[in-house]
Amino acid sequence: MRFTLPAASLIALVAEVVANTEKVIFTAPSAITIPNIRPGLDDLSLDVLSPAGLRTLETNLAVQFPSDTAPRGVQSWYLLKGLEAGRRYEVRACWPATQPTEFWLDVHNLTHVFETPLLISSLADYSEQRQHPGLQAPRHAEPEATSQSVLLLQVHSAADYFTSNRTLMEHPPAVDVDIILDPFLLNILPQSLGPTALYITVLTAGSFFLSGAIYNWLYRIAEIPKPHTD
Ligand SMILES: *[C@@H]1O[C@H](CO)[C@@H](O)[C@H](O)[C@H]1NC(C)=O
Ligand SMILES: *[C@@H]1O[C@H](CO)[C@@H](O)[C@H](O)[C@H]1NC(C)=O
């Protein structure tokens, strides 16, 4: 019993050290009708995350050291599709602590991106990098315009360390990242944290009753009979 507590804290500490997380929490916008015209959203060649489809994207992202022209390093874009309007979601980026990196996650609605020159040009650049002429996968034509809640996720990644090795400073290696889309349960809690939250609740309730029992016990043994006054 004496070793339980330090061991538990050690495990928590190790878990903290081996992976870093950056996240953004947002509410899905109302559904919009996306006309089935070319070029459409699919032609941007972005990786897609959706609650019903791929929820964890394992990827590796190019990074740069922050510079005057790119203070947040390299940008990449993702499509969040098939969201449930009005529901809260969290997107997390998780990466190994052995690859010190700084991430910034931002979600934007389509209107906002298309009306903001800085965003649309960044999206266009990224999309262009991902196009491989002649390698375009044949797209299954969607029969009609679809109405759904979509958002664009913008990720910035910058290397966050210093090395005297010039080669490494100019070409920092790509970072292994998991990008995770997590719907909130009852709009309060990320779904994947459900079991942990349940455990903490049980633990809290348990310690509440336990401390109550200890308190009662202490109270009883401390209850010294009043001296008689006669
Ligand atoms: C889109 O995003 C902008 C900026 O965040 C916001 O002002 C606007 O209300 C949003 N539009 C919709 C339809 O959600
Ligand atoms: C710098 O880093 C590169 C890549 O890791 C390595 O190949 C090279 O040997 C290093 N140079 C020096 C001087 O340490």
TrEMBL record:
InterPro entries: GPI_ManTrfase_II_coact_Pga1. Pfam families: Pga1. The chain crosses the membrane at residues 197-218. The keyword Signal applies. GO terms for molecular function: mannosyltransferase activity. Keywords: Membrane, Signal, Transmembrane, Transmembrane helix. This is Uncharacterized protein. It comes from Mytilinidion resinicola.
